[in-house]
Recover the amino acids of this structure.
């Protein structure tokens, strides 16, 4: 009897030691901290300096970021604007004939790298860049309109923050546009926005000046339709299908046990073992562990190529084993993510045999996402889109075990 009891105690002690030590090798269970993790759309970074948070990016060897080249995107938007003006009729653009092109600028989030890059790209193209993305810091520039050089003045730049504290807010843009139209009148010759949602919000203002060109960014379905209808002058596609697919493909590669360069090339810049490959151009930035999609300008000459419903034919049904992924969206009300990114994710995830669970925040409080970032052990991998770019550690704290 004593011998039996002793053996039982020894076995119990051994089992307790295994669980206490949390040994994945001993239990056959992968700990949350060792699972694949992809940040997307909002790159972990300092909201003031823009410096990439490499401590978070090096959380484990299966941590990556998927997004797009923000600086290049800002430059594409700037070029889109100057190309439009170069072909425009000076008499129509300069509404009050004062020899000055005045514009107003909708800024998404002063602490967001993408917003900063777009503001910089716009101001550099128009010569109003004064070394800062601060809403109040611009200088007099110049631009060629129909072969004639005009002075350029940023009448006002403003961050579009909603009454609930959410950024990139379309309703705030509608209100701001109404105020600008009253305040500046015919001095406004052009409207520029850091995204389509705010641009479309401006167009909703009851006193929006008819015929004034307006530019957005994102190539959302409603914006593309607006270009076709002659209401929006241009936008920039950040290749949402390439981004959504790359987010899922990097996770798929990691879940399949791929390592090294195979993680960010297979199925992305070269075919994977299932024959899939993203068609749009995508690059890897090793210093940031980032997979970046390219950008392209959209205007009245090519908008039909970007109409809704077109998906990447290079991604087909795979025979990979099914895996579960928990994915967060920082704001359920974000126009780009809700109307473009999520539908793309929901289209491609089944093709890669990934079962997605999507939870969404309110765009204001990080807790609105974190409170839903739960039951982590039920998932094989995670994809995180934060409310604030410096909040990565809050999520990583929940993945420590």
């Amino acid at each position: 009897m004593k011998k039996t009891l002793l053996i039982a105690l020894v076995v119990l002690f051994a089992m307790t030691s295994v669980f206490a030590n949390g040994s994945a090798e001993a239990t056959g269970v992968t700990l949350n901290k060792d699972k694949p993790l992809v940040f997307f759309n909002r790159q972990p970074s300092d909201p003031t300096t823009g410096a990439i948070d490499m401590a978070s990016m090096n959380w484990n060897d299966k941590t990556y970021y998927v997004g797009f080249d923000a600086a290049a995107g800002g430059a594409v938007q700037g070029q889109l604007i100057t190309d439009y003006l170069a072909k425009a009729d000076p008499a129509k653009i300069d509404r009050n004939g004062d020899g000055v092109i005045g514009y107003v600028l909708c800024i998404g989030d002063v602490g967001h790298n993408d917003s900063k890059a777009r503001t910089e790209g716009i101001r550099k193209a128009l010569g109003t860049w004064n070394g800062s993305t601060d809403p109040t810091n611009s200088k007099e520039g110049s631009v060629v309109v129909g072969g004639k050089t005009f002075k350029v003045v940023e009448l006002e730049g403003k961050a579009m923050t909603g009454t609930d504290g959410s950024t990139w807010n379309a309703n705030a843009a509608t209100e701001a546009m109404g105020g600008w139209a009253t305040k500046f009148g015919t001095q406004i010759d052009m409207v520029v926005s850091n995204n389509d949602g705010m641009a479309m919000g401006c167009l909703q203002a009851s006193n929006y000046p008819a015929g004034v060109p307006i530019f957005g960014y994102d190539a959302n379905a409603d914006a593309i339709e607006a270009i076709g209808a002659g209401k929006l002058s241009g936008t920039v596609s950040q290749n949402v299908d390439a981004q959504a697919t790359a987010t899922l493909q990097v996770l798929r590669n990691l879940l399949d046990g791929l390592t090294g360069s195979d993680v960010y090339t297979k199925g992305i810049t070269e075919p994977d073992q299932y024959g899939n490959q993203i068609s749009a151009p995508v690059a890897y930035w090793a210093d940031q562990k980032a997979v970046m999609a390219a950008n392209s300008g959209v205007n009245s000459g090519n908008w039909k190529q970007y109409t809704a419903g077109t998906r990447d034919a290079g991604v087909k049904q795979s025979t990979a084993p099914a895996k579960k992924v928990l994915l967060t969206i920082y704001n359920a009300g974000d126009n780009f993510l809700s109307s473009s990114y999520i539908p793309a994710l929901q289209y491609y995830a089944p093709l890669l045999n990934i079962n997605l669970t999507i939870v969404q925040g309110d765009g204001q409080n990080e807790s609105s996402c974190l409170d839903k970032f739960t039951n982590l052990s039920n998932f094989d991998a995670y994809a995180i889109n934060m409310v604030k770019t410096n909040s990565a550690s809050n999520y990583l704290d929940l993945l420590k075990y």
